[in-house]
Design goal:
The protein contains 11 helices and 13 strands. By secondary structure, it is α/β, with parallel strands linked by helices. The longest helix has 17 residues, at about 115-135.
C-alpha cells in the first residue's frame, strides 16, 4: 500500500507529540512493508521526507502551501493519506488533485479554550471542517472522543491510540537520580505551578527529594536563575531534543504530568517503557491503557493540599516496572501495530 502522512516533523527547530507521531507512524508502515512518506513544510533531521516548498518552521506558512502539497499527493498516487493539525485545512485541494485515496484526519488535541478562546475556535472549526470533508475521522483517546462528541458535536469514527518508539539502550536496573521528572511544554494548562508548589511542600519534609524538569514555554522563566523554582532540589534542563528524553525517564522513579485535558499524553507511554512510573491527573487521555497496573498513579488536582498528600503516597508506593510489563507496553504502543489499525480504515 502507498501511504502519505501530512504534518510536522522532528528536527533541531521543531518538536512535539504530533511530529513524533508522524515519524513513528512512517516507520510503522515501512515495517509492514508498505511504501510510506511524509509531506511537511520543513525537513526532518532523521528521515528523507518530502518538503512542500522552501523548508520553514513557521506554522502559519502551511496556509500558503496547500496547492504544493496537493501536487505532491497527485505525484505520489497514495492509497491512504493521513493528515494532522493545520495540514488538514487543504483537504478540498488534495481531493481535487487525487480523489482515489482514502483521506483520514487525526484529531490529536482537545477543543477546549485552555490556551485561549480564538485557538479553541480554530480547533473546533478544523474538527467540523474535517468531519465534513475527510473520509474518516480518528482521535487518540476516549477523552478526546467524548469532548469532540459532547461539546463540539463531531463524531469520530475510530479511537486509535498513539505509539512510541522504545529506546535501544534501555537499562531497567539503572539507579534512579530523581524522584520525579517532568518533560514537556511549560505552559499554564499543564498545571506546572500547582505541581511545583506541591513538590516544594513535600521537600520541606523529605529533604532528599530530587526533581528534574525538561521543557520550554511561557513558564520557563520560573526555572531560570533567580526564578521562583530555581531551587537546590530541582534540576532544570530546558529544551531537550526528543532522542535525549529517554535518559531522563530512565533516571527517574516517576514521570509526572497533571494536565486535566491531556488528550493523548505520549510522554506517559515513553516514560513507562523506560521503567519510569507514570503519574497523571484523573482525567488524562490514553492513560486508560495503564488501567489496573500497580506502577500507574492518578492524582486529584483540585487543590495543592490534596495533590501534596497524594504525591506523598505515590512516593511511598513506588513499584518497579518489570521486563514483562515493558514488553507488553512495547506491544501496545508499537507503531507497527498502530499502522495496521490505520490500514484497516481503507475501503478496498
Amino acid at each position: 500500500m502507498r501511504i502519505l502522512i501530512l504534518g510536522p516533523i522532528v528536527n533541531e527547530r521543531t518538536s512535539g507529540g504530533v511530529a513524533v507521531f508522524d515519524e513513528g507512524l512512517y516507520h510503522g508502515f515501512n515495517e509492514l512493508g508498505d511504501f510510506a512518506q511524509i509531506i511537511s513544510i520543513d525537513k526532518s533531521s532523521s528521515i528523507d521526507n518530502l518538503v512542500a516548498g522552501k523548508p520553514t518552521n513557521k506554522k502559519h506558512k502551511i496556509f500558503f502551501r496547500f496547492r504544493r502539497i496537493a501536487k505532491l499527493i497527485k505525484k505520489f498516487e497514495p492509497d491512504l493519506v493521513i493528515s494532522s493539525v493545520q495540514y488538514s485545512i487543504g483537504i478540498k485541494k488534495y481531493k481535487r488533485k487525487w480523489p482515489k485515496a482514502t483521506y483520514v484526519q487525526v484529531l490529536h488535541g482537545t477543543p477546549c479554550p485552555v490556551n485561549g478562546i480564538f485557538k479553541a475556535w480554530c480547533i473546533n472549526f478544523a474538527a467540523r471542517y474535517s468531519r465534513k470533508h475527510f473520509d474518516k475521522l480518528v482521535t487518540v483517546s476516549h477523552l478526546s472522543w467524548a469532548i469532540n462528541k459532547k461539546i463540539n458535536r463531531v463524531e469520530c469514527d475510530e479511537i486509535i491510540n498513539t505509539g512510541c518508539i522504545p529506546p535501544s539502550n534501555f537499562n531497567g536496573s539503572k539507579e534512579k537520580k530523581y524522584d520525579f521528572c517532568y518533560v514537556g511544554r511549560l505552559v499554564k494548562d499543564k498545571n506546572i505551578e500547582k505541581m511545583m508548589d506541591s513538590l516544594i511542600e513535600i521537600q520541606k519534609e523529605r529533604h532528599n527529594l530530587k526533581v528534574c524538569i525538561a521543557g520550554y514555554g511561557e513558564l520557563e522563566h520560573l526555572f531560570y536563575p533567580g526564578g521562583k523554582y530555581d531551587l537546590d532540589f530541582v534540576t532544570f534542563k530546558g529544551k531537550v531534543e526528543h532522542p535525549n528524553v529517554f535518559s531522563i525517564y530512565s533516571d527517574s522513579k516517576f514521570f509526572i504530568s497533571l494536565c486535566e485535558l491531556e488528550a493523548c499524553g505520549l510522554a506517559f507511554s515513553e516514560a513507562a517503557i523506560c521503567g519510569c512510573n507514570p503519574v497523571s491527573a484523573l482525567s488524562s487521555g490514553q492513560t486508560y491503557l495503564f488501567r489496573g497496573k500497580p506502577f500507574y498513579h492518578t492524582i486529584d488536582t483540585s487543590n495543592v493540599n490534596i495533590m501534596t498528600a497524594e504525591l506523598k503516597m505515590v512516593l511511598d508506593n513506588h513499584v518497579e516496572i518489570t521486563k514483562g510489563d515493558i514488553g507488553e507496553l512495547i506491544e501496545i504502543f508499537s507503531f507497527k501495530n498502530i499502522a495496521k489499525k490505520y490500514k484497516n480504515l481503507v475501503e478496498l
